[in-house]
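From the pipeline queue, job 12 of 40. The input is one protein chain; the requested action is below.

Action: predict structure.
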Amino acid sequence: MTAIVSFEEADPDRELKERQLTSLDDDQLASALAATRRAAAEARANEQMERLFQLVRGMKTIHRIAQQRGLILKRPRVAQGP
């Protein structure tokens, strides 16, 4: 299972977590984003707003790291019904 990325507002471990994210390859980074996005959707559905904010910080960090590599990580398309 891929790790879910979240940051507290003033996360004392932010620097370490960012270094770990930077060490991931592109596919692993995309997987971390997908796992974090799923967790955020669940937090939103359950009205866990503080958890949602932590996960959004994680997603923004993943996007920033991807952008520094020249990557654009997009949400996969969802097939629409008939």
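Job complete. The two ends are 32 Å apart (CA to CA).
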